[in-house]
Design goal:
Oligomer: heterodimer
Number of helices of chain B: 4
Structural class of chain A: alpha+beta
Shape of chain B: globular
Order of helices and strands of chain B: EEEHEEEEEHHEH
Structural class of chain B: alpha+beta
Strand content of chain B: 25-35%
Order of helices and strands of chain A: HEEHEEHEEEHEEHEEEHEHHEEEEEE
Shape of chain A: globular
Radius of gyration of chain B: 13 Å
Strand order of the largest sheet of chain B: 1-2-3-9-8-5
Distance between the termini of chain B: 12 Å
Largest sheet of chain B: 6 strands, antiparallel
Number of helices of chain A: 8
Number of strands of chain A: 19
Strand order of the largest sheet of chain A: 10-11-12-9-3-13
Distance between the termini of chain A: 41 Å
Largest interface: A-B, 19 and 17 residues
Helix content of chain A: 10-25%
Chain lengths: ~375, ~130
Amino acid sequence: MTLPADDDLRETPLSARHAALGARLIGFSGWRMPVQYGSILDEHRAVRERAGLFDLSHMGELFVEGPDAGSALAAALVSDPPTLAVGRAHYSMICAPDGGIIDDLIVYRLAEERYLVVANAGNAAAVSDALAERLIGTRAILDDRSLATGLVAIQGPLARAALAPHTDVDLAALRYYAISEGPVAGIPALVARTGYTGEDGFEVFVDWERTGEVWDVLLDAVRGVDGVPVGLGARDTLRLEAGMPLYGNELDLHTNPYDAGLGRVVKLGKPGPFVGRVALERVEASGPAKRLVGLIVEGRGIGRHGYPVHVGDRLSGVVTSGTQSPTLGVPIAMAYVAPGDAEAGTIVDIEIRGARVPARIVPLPFYRRQA
Amino acid sequence: MSVPRDLRYTKDHEWVRVDGDEADIGITAYAAHQLGDIVFVELPRIGTAITAHGTFGVVESVKAVSDLFAPLGGEVVAVNEGLTGSPESVNEDAYGAGWMIRIHVAEPAQLDELLDPDAYDTLIAAG
């Protein structure tokens, strides 16, 4: 229960602020990050009911620009970025030739020939390297600004009310999965209506050196609506309730988008080859070898990452993420099971410390916000 | 955060309240704070024999699973059933409502191996 004394960890522009707020800091994907400022449950509930502020400066920001930016990304990723209107975004993935997922991404179209690809912190270097290689021979250049770009997210039903007084961006007009350029707290920024919590909210990209100024203003704004700063602990429980996959848990190089129930992200109908196409066409035709499901534990216990899942006497799969759901008040989990076991309503057993605990397969997400 | 003076402790952050030949066992407020919000506690059944330094249960926070280590050997004579519905009692009242099990102490001599409050204070002050 001691903090890792790992001095190789990178600091975000907000690390000193987190420490001053009394956050518990942990190593995460090579970064020193706040896991919680106070209680994870309180932080979770604040985001569901009011608003929370997150430091996501560890994420990777990769700008792709040039006359071939769109077509080069279409050949590098499974989605079809040229179909995005300027100012819109979509969820995407970058796959290996065998269809395994290198990372899941958000792709924003900032201008006719300029895109922003946001990668997970732990994969940012791998995505950057793969993109650089896949852009060779095209008229598109990659500008990896991961260490020059800070990212702060404000999430929750009161996020818009809290952010609006501090930006010129018309938040009411900014659609879900849209992005707009404009000042936040007087500082040039990109404001996107995206997030990883299952709530309405915004992500604010700013210059690394000025991230602290934005954070200070937005922290006051969030506190003004009785919100709080939120660490990675609650970020994980929020995304799990929302049924959103986490790279390293639900997604990895041995998993393809169809396994994860995210086949809709793969645009097999787009023109031309893309990395992974041949393998993914095969999976699409034959069906995935495993399927991601939601589980609600009906006995006592919490299914955690790596716990086996049985159907009768047969091993069916494995839990990828699990926790006590703060919103539902029951233990929830995501798991991969054999395709034949994946129907909602199926009762499976999670093996928890040697004991079989029954759980019911349910449709994802576990939680959906009221429209 | 000074610890109660009438208890004994382990370096694994369990506490022991001796009462005749029986003892109540729980985890310290320091441990509960380090774990964060406790959402699940798994305890042995009444009648289970536990051995000193062996695991007797599990406590789960939102983030993590932690084993509970027995400070003493003996037979479980009572279990705090209230923790099933209110595991947060461990965070809120670690030395009271958050107690976990009561045992009949098998070998009273094992009590001498436990830390006194000053020694436990020193342990947690060192982080």
